[in-house]
Amino acid sequence: YRYNLAFKTYTWGVRTCNADCCSPWIYDTFEVYNNPPPAPILVDELDTHSNTVELEWSSGGADPEGDATYFNLMFDGTLYTNVMSPMTFSGLSYGSHTWKVQECDPWDCSSWSVDTFSVTNNAPSEPILEEINHTSESRIVLRWTSGIDPDGDPTYDEYQFETNAIVSPATSPQIESVSGVKVYTWRVRTCDVTGACSKWVRDDFIRYECPPCVCECPPCPPCRRRVSGGKVVYVCPPELVCNESWVCEEWGPCIGGIQERECIDINKCNTTCHKPPTIRRCKVEKPMAPPVITIGVRRIVVWPFILSAIAFAIISFVVGVLVGKEWKAKRKR
Length: 333
Known about the structure:
The chain is about 10% helix and about 35% strand. By secondary structure, it is mainly beta. The strands form eleven sheets. The chain has a four-stranded antiparallel sheet with strand order 7-6-9-10, with no helix packed on it. Strands 15-14-17-18 form a four-stranded antiparallel sheet, with no helix packed on it. The longest helix has 30 residues, at about 305-330. The termini are far apart.
């Protein structure tokens, strides 16, 4: 008898011998083999927002030789041996995860059955900012409505004014002090407690300064006494009525998103009731690039050729006119 033979092909032989000689060898060949169990059947794990999953599977069928079997499971590269379905995994990170199972008998294992799923975390929607009008106030109240998390996670807001430190968590409204003539920028985003954030939403406004508006007539000198319809009335001299007449220069260059200009009242009324705006927002326009053609590996600017062609056409026209006049003059002679 031979026990615990390895799985391979074996050859054995027998012969009979007496005191003088032996018969020829008679040989036989056989194979010791083992069929592995069939691959297990996995229950597909769907993508989820939960950080805890329960993985389930079942046997793919009985072992061909009726051997006892067990399962191995590998989750994200970590092997777990001799396990039973289901298995629970907690504290999973957001992203893709892979798990696979094989069924084994004492000598061999099936192929791996593989499944992949993702633990997802959707960012909240963007907050809605309340638009701020251009103002000359020195204190500004900034308000917004927070975004909503599609997964139902708790949320908080992050807020930044200009280049100041980010306020987190932040609540609406926020009050800021402003001064001078300047474009001010602020932004807000909504985040959930697991770290997913919406995009920043930005807004800006201009803080400007204007001289105080004077819209009152200067005091009247002693009024003139007049009798009208049998009654005595007092009339303010008409020469005291002043109508503003403003003249403005061209807008200045766009600097920091702002253009300014000077305006004067040629009637010198010393009031600013109808004064035109002297500050406005602007964008710096990029100069138009000259047309370029490519010949082989060389890039050639076309403007010089275009200008040369125009100049040649003008000169040819002028010369043609002069020659025509000279020819007509000769014919008349």
